[in-house]
Amino acid sequence: MRTICLYFQVHQPFRLRKYRFFDIGNDHYYYDDYSNESILHKVAQKCYLPANALMLDLIEKYKGQFKISYSISGIAMEQFKLYAPEVLDSFRKLADTGQVEFLSETYAHSLSSLKGRKEFERQVKAHKALVKEHFGQVPKVFRNTELIYSDEIGAMIGNMGYKAMLTEGAKHVLGWKSPNYLYCNAINPKLKLLLKNFKLSDDIAFRFSNQGWDGYPLTAEKYVDWLNQTPENEEVINLFMDYETFGEHQWEETGIFKFLEALPGSVFKNSPFTFSTPTEVADSLQVVAAANVPNPISWADEERDLTAWLGNEMQQEAFDKLYTLSEKVSSTDDDAIKQDFDFLQVSDHFYYMSTKFFSDGDVHSYFNPYDTPYDAFINYMNVLSDFEIRVNAAAKADVDDDVARLSKIIKEKDEQLEKLEKRLAIKKNTGAKKTTATKKSTSVKKKS
Amino acid sequence: MFGWEFPPHISGGLGTACFGLTRGMSTIPDLDIMFVVPKAYGDEDQSRFKLIGAGDVSVDIRNVREHQYLKDLSYIEINSNLVPYTSPEEYEVLVNNAEHHGKRFIETTMGGKLNFTGKYGKDLYEEIANYAIVAGEIALSEDFDIIHSHDWLTYPAGIAAKRASGKPLVIHVHATDFDRSGGKVNPTVFEIEKMGMNLADKIIAVSNLTRNTVIEKYGIHPDKVVTVYNAVDPLPDHERLRLKRGINDQVVTFLGRITLQKGPEYFVQAAYKVLQKMDNVRFVMAGSGELLEKMILWTSKLGISDRFHYTGFLKGDDVFKMFSISDVYVMPSVSEPFGISPLEAMQSNVPSIISHQSGVAEILKYAFKVDFWDVDALADAIYGLLNYPSLSQMFKKHGVQEVNDMKWENSGKKVHSIYKEFVK
What we know:
By secondary structure, chain A is α/β, with parallel strands linked by helices. Chain A is built from 18 helices and 12 strands.
């Protein structure tokens, strides 16, 4: 069997408003509602709605044959709910066809997988619940933020009960090996790995409209030709990309929708390939080998590592400082604090602070609300400073509650003792025989 | 080359830039530089080029007329009552006469030499004209291929030398009067600048910002104006310039002339905002200038005098000593053709905030940039650098390297390639 696995990432961050240091302690609202709403509307009009409509057409046209998968970040789902519920409806319609798989990820599109299990698991569960709520599916396949993966993260996901995970087919990990097979985690072989074919994925996602590219113009026929040129024994071509590729990164005028519309027909007509969801791939293919990924990889930039988010000192400081609050946040009952903690974890905040754009321009400046990474950093740290004050205040309130509760208990015990002592004193007066009991009661009092 | 000042006798960045460029060019083979200043003190570093004081050059008055050094420069109000030799007594009489009749004289000492202060005093126009006369004399007697004039004070000299020798003239715009005056341009200065630009064969601007000013405000054809960025010398003897910090507070420093051009009021406003939020910080305004008193009054009115300090004018090592106890350097210039001091701050490991309205903002990556008028952004940047250590660390780590990569040799090579367009 030869099959194509299409997966699309859907995500929009909650962008922060301009937050000056004099707002710290005075203003606890952090978000730029105007740009969040207007950007979401724009992308919905240009991408989500027309692309979803096209996908639905294709699924209905090729009954049971054309299959796709999505992961939609929790943050994106929240924004759909707030600003564009029709987008959520259109995804639901896709889910209802039964040909569309929705994957798990972290609720906040966060980097929490790098900061231990507890917060990460909480977010994965929260996201899973949202997927169930909106699309009626219980995800079995996981894809981490920006396809971040390491042996350890994979093992963690395996232990959480997932059968497969998506990641990048990074050259420095695979070496001579091809991404076009099913692999498994090096620690927990039960977790299967689908690796992105970055060449064929990026031909669509990044190069499609590049007139200087020798593949230009890219047609469905040409693309199927390339698919056919892959060695015949290779089993799966994993095409993973941002959903915004359709209509937003590549505008409608480039012909990207026409390409997408023509692709399945061309595949069925001119190639042996079928379409499969990630679960189907994981269930039907045999694992050929374990992938050894001791250091985290991602799908970003040439290096396919984490440097776009955690490459410089500013990013490290912001990231570390945020997660030092993790314990305190999880022990508070304040929902507003919990929500802000989620929203502050969105990986985009750290991406904006990247100084790699000095050399790695375009992609990093995409939808970037800041002029420089320094602006992004200071703005984020100002917000975080305010957030920290709130978290500490809430934690202190909790401590105060504890103190009050314990004080009450002590007070009650004291009263009880007093009563007992009074009774003892009465008994003492009535008979001198009970001296031992008196001694005992004083020692109890000391202990309390 | 004609320049008005040369280290160590400088009042600002111009002399430093002239020296750096000249030194940077001294490594180019087959290139000899003669640098003419109004007044040579004898203690300048002349190891790699010849420095001439205009006051040490004999002038033959007849040449002035013959070659019309000062043609079209009549607004400098030079009367042609030339007096070749004067005794002190005669000089006084002449000066009195001049005052009576509203005329000026070109006065020479014994041996036909002119007097120069090399300062920016009340007889500046006269000195500029005298300097031009000497330039003409030098052009007649010396052998050279190209004339290079630094800033408006020496444009007349460049023009005179061009007229006397017929050699090409390059003028180097370190600043225009639009930068210095904050918009209230002095018409005489503007005329001299414009004439220099018109008569020059090529114009070098120290940044694209300045290049645009030359093109837009002086109406010069873009093809004639090229940008050559300044650079900075490596910092000598770092340790010697270290001051022990006597206080625990962090220090934010403004260093420059306290004039409209440098935007000191934005620094005061930002300081006030930051001080509302934190108290372990002090602000230092180093420099002198016409707005100094106003700033002092204002800071006391705002009630921040206990946290806001003035040092007066700093030069030489004192600048680096000031940097050694600074945590943030701020240059909120309203209009800064280039701006060498942030580079010096960065060399001293001091993170810098500079305005977008400075030429140096075009080339620096590891500096925080704000619009000079955006006091909130400036205050925010100061606060951020003081409170979020990784930003400072990053600026320190990469800033020194970034600045050290800007070499006067590179600027010198660019200038040399411009020369080569004219000298085959």
